[in-house]
Write a structure and sequence with these properties.
homodimer, about 300 residues, eight-stranded parallel β-barrel
């Protein structure tokens, strides 16, 4: 799946991923009302509106953006009805030709990780009948438990042409508390995690030299990102932190190789809430989202240059 | 909530938690058929049967076991219908007076962690109306992202009388790859995580001396568990790994203090699949589950002794 993502990045000259972190509060006021003009106050109707919002954005960006990242926490907070909207959104984006990253940061011991892998990257058997649960192309995972918690995902990656991204150096301010601890051999914890990620993916390197086991590396930490790019030439980066979190194109260009490849940059609120910004005033949310995607593409192109050989 | 859990452990003289990791495959053959005798082959019907199985077990153990731990991965693999069964199971167990641990190992940056916290420990607002999502009393989390990824959970703990357990030293064979790395100051990564857990919980210490921010410490690693018990006198342990994973009562007794308190021991397959063991042959699954709980209680009592002052 990593080759398909990179193909699409080159085709569109756009290493952007739109984060559908769709809080009901982000919706325009008219979408917060039901047909009779009353305020929506149930998960069932709220999540229908969230799905509608996502679909309209997907329709408007699918020809210029290669991927969406759907952050499951924003759906879990609406209970199982939220998960229904999550499922529908993944399916819809795939139907429109987008690559779908389920941002779930799942992690557990082997037998349980195997259930998570079935849920997102494989399928679940019921009396021998295989059924798909949440249809993702790529999944984020957390490797704190070590290799036997990741192996089940790697097996499904190989069997079903999928990818994962493991947390290495996250974009949040406190990420250093664990990740930047220095080990007795002089290495940092995030570098050790990076080495494990490289090991997990080494049998899955594709035509661009990148493996199916990528790393989450925040745009907000350029020093670490630069070291990781050198340490991990075969590891593709999922790069959060652009925009609202303070990362910018100049900070994150260190994540890319000499061919302008090696990463995909996520932006969530900066796109889906663009309609609230003064520069897009008067536009509806999906047109504003498209305009914000084009502005982001230009910003990234100016820092990274042409993508592909 | 930690005081309520310890009260109940003392009352029942039982520091056991039953893990409802209910794979459809674990069900007795007659529960895998529908009313007309055909094999069930949909998530909808499969998850109805999983719920029924859980309810019958809960009914049979709620007077002798203080808590259940519901592992969400086993529900996510059945899609959003699985999450409906998860939700129903949490509600049912609480209704029967059990303390409910949602084993989700959630983790993300602050704004997203806040969504997860709403989902399990708080409530979600829709146009100002607060609605409960998944009604847990306690939640497992993963602290790899550091303090700002945990703070949202701690806020909800304080506001809503809940608890969390953060992964410190997990029960799986590869847990040492990250967790047992030695830092330049001589500390191990799991000890540093333990120190953070102590810090996160320090304002929430209850009447037994334990805080609302507990630690996951595997029964399979007694050496680390013993060190952690000494390092963290105010941290309550959720102890997986008993039974199927190889941990036993002698190995895990180091997790308990001189009053026989300080931890709760989880057993999943050893209880819910007890009916498949030779020693319970001829019993139905819920009677076998109860018998296995009693055997486990006796095993733990023989190692730990009387619970409470």
């Amino acid at each position: 799946m990593i080759d398909r993502l990179i193909d699409r990045i080159i085709e569109l000259q756009n290493p952007t991923c739109v984060g559908l972190d769709t809080n009901f509060d982000y919706l325009p006021d008219d979408m917060k009302m039901d047909k009779s003009g009353d305020e929506i106050t149930t998960f069932e109707t709220a999540t229908e509106r969230i799905t509608e919002f996502n679909m309209n954005i997907i329709d408007k960006i699918c020809d210029i953006v290669p991927a969406v990242k759907v952050q499951v926490a924003y759906y879990e907070m609406y209970g199982y009805e939220g998960l229904k909207a999550f499922d529908y959104t993944l399916n819809y984006a795939r139907g429109r030709g987008m690559i779908v990253i389920a941002d779930c940061k799942r992690n557990d011991i082997g037998s349980t990780a195997s259930c998570y892998s079935k849920a997102y990257l494989g399928s679940t058997c019921v009396n021998g009948k295989k059924i798909k649960s949440f249809p993702a192309d790529m999944l984020t995972v957390n490797g704190y438990l070590g290799s036997d918690g990741i192996t089940p995902f790697v097996d499904d990656i190989k069997a079903n042409d999928k990818s994962i991204f493991a947390l290495v150096k996250t974009s949040n301010p406190s990420s250093g508390e664990l990740q930047n601890l220095k080990l007795e051999n002089g290495e940092y914890v995030y570098e050790r995690m990076g080495a494990l990620v490289n090991e997990w993916g080494k049998d899955t390197v594709g035509k661009y030299g990148y493996s199916e086991v990528g790393a989450v590396v925040g745009a907000t930490h350029p020093e670490e990102a630069e070291k990781l790019r050198k340490q991990l030439p075969n590891t593709f980066f999922l790069i959060p932190g652009y925009g609202a979190q303070g990362g910018n194109a100049q900070m994150l260009k260190v994540c890319f190789d000499s061919h302008g490849l090696g990463g995909i940059v996520n932006n969530s609120r900066g796109i889906i809430c663009a309609y609230k910004k003064p520069e897009y005033s008067g536009m509806n949310y999906y047109d504003a989202a498209r305009a914000a995607c084009i502005a982001m593409q230009q910003d990234l192109q100016s820092a990274i240059g042409k993508m592909g050989k």
